[in-house]
Specification:
CATH class: Alpha Beta
Largest sheet: 8 strands, mixed
CATH architecture: 3-Layer(aba) Sandwich
Oligomer: single chain
Number of domains: 1
Number of helices: 7
Strand content: 25-35%
Strand order of the largest sheet: 6-7-5-4-8-9-11-10
Structural class: alpha/beta
């Protein structure tokens, strides 16, 4: 499918899949969306502790990069697992200029390492941040009671409805530890109901720019 780099509403870039009219991040602001959904309503729930984190859709690596930045500020130690079936090319990554956009040019080497490091291995990006990239379909996720936090950043239900089903959210529920949290930019009623059907307690929260709401789901045990 044809892909191109586009500039979003906050000046940051993302990748657009033209055949789907779908982007890896919000066209209203890639960086703003990532911070609002995954950091402010996800990562910041965990203070001064070890966080085991699963990202559904590693994609451009933007969420991993800002997590690394914010975890150091919050004195968090993060074990980050990113699942991606179709990795982004280094050529595309280099066109996104995320470190420059974020004002952290000094992190460019670490960001490059995130994308160039081998798959299926645990790699230390910093002393407090490890990354394990897993190249597989989301349906193949089988971890049990392993994660504190899930970033659910799959392509939208309009183009990939099979990723937003009860079957997938049951895998997410099982992968979380007790009191674990899943955050996503999505807010569709069908998504919320699928989450609730597998046992999640679901909150509607104010959405990022361009979206009225987002969802946060908790495994309360």
């Amino acid at each position: 499918m044809k892909r191109r780099i586009i500039t979003t509403g906050d000046g940051s870039k993302t990748i657009q899949i033209e055949d789907w009219d779908e982007q890896y991040h919000s066209k209203h602001g890639a960086v703003q969306e990532a911070y609002h959904v995954f950091i402010e309503h996800g990562l910041w729930l965990f203070q001064n502790r070890k966080v085991h984190l699963l990202e559904i859709g590693f994609g451009t690596g933007l969420n991993a990069l800002i997590t690394l930045i914010e975890a150091s500020k919050q004195q968090l130690s993060v074990d980050y697992v990113g699942v991606e079936a179709f990795p982004v090319s280094l050529e595309e990554v280099n066109q996104l200029d995320y470190c420059e956009q974020l004002g952290f040019e000094g992190l460019e080497q670490m960001f490059q390492k995130m994308h160039s490091c081998p798959w299926e291995k645990v790699i230390s990006i910093t002393t407090d941040f490890t990354l394990s990239k897993q190249k597989k379909d989301f349906k193949e996720i089988s971890q049990q009671n392993q994660f504190n936090l899930i970033y659910f950043d799959a392509f939208g239900a309009r183009v990939q409805p099979e990723l937003w089903t009860e079957a997938i959210f049951l895998k997410m529920y099982q992968a979380l530890k007790a009191n674990g949290v899943l955050v996503t930019y999505a807010a569709k009623g069908s998504v919320r109901r699928a989450m609730q059907a597998v046992g999640f307690t679901v909150e509607r929260l104010p959405g990022p720019p361009g979206k009225r709401e987002m969802l946060r789901a908790t495994k309360q045990e």
